[in-house]
Amino acid sequence: MAKSVALACFLGLFLAFAAADHSPLQDFCVAQAGGSVFVNGMACKDPKTVKANDFSFSGLHLPGNMSNPVGSRVTPVTVAQLPGLNTLGISAARIDIAPWGINPPHIHPRATEILLVLEGTLEVGFITSNPDNRLISKVLQKGDVFVFPQGLVHFQRNTGFGNAVAIAALGSQNPGVITIANAVFGSTPDISGDILAKAFQVDKIVVGQIQSKF
Length: 214
Ligand SMILES: *[C@@H]1O[C@H](CO)[C@@H](O)[C@H](O)[C@H]1NC(C)=O
Fold this sequence. Notes:
The strands form 2 sheets. The protein has a 5-stranded antiparallel sheet with strand order 1-2-9-4-7, covered by helices on one side. A 5-stranded antiparallel sheet has the order 6-5-8-3-10. It is built from 4 helices and 10 strands. A hairpin with a 7-residue loop joins strand 5 (121-127) and strand 6 (135-141). The longest helix has 14 residues, at 2-15. The protein is an alpha+beta fold. 2-acetamido-2-deoxy-beta-D-glucopyranose binds at residues 65, 67.
């Protein structure tokens, strides 16, 4: 209960911020399931057929499955899961991280993210643009909030003894995620090993070893 109240306050707080997506031109534009029109965002369903459930998502009280190589799980609530978010410029996510697990370095190309720790201890950080590439990082405890500016590489790691739980609010209905390691070493098709060997200043064999993990 305390958690859901915290979440509600938190999302309300976020609404007061300037969202990154374009402003709506009507009260709402609930995304149409299976819509075949390609627009910037998603086509609206007939407003007369809109129901309360179009503006609702359930299940964020449940921990995500952290049994994977990075030891974390992100449960997103974007326009893909909550059609009523279409055109509204915000979304949310639950992040579960096992002890010493990480949410690996990634970018949200379309959103600033504000993160609230509900349980546990999280080391978080982001890196500024070239040429400084300064690491701005901090250890957060339950109740602490941290903001990751739009488009910057950022990460989280659970440095505590128990599982960590955080709720993120993001300034886009569709923030997008680019996980650096997966994008660079796991693209389809592969980026040429020569390019990555030069970019990372390592032997091509090392590049091949990393590529084989993705
Ligand atoms: C969690 O994920 C692992 C690995 O994919 C899987 O083996 C396991 O059954 C999953 N656990 C649950 C509760 O879904």
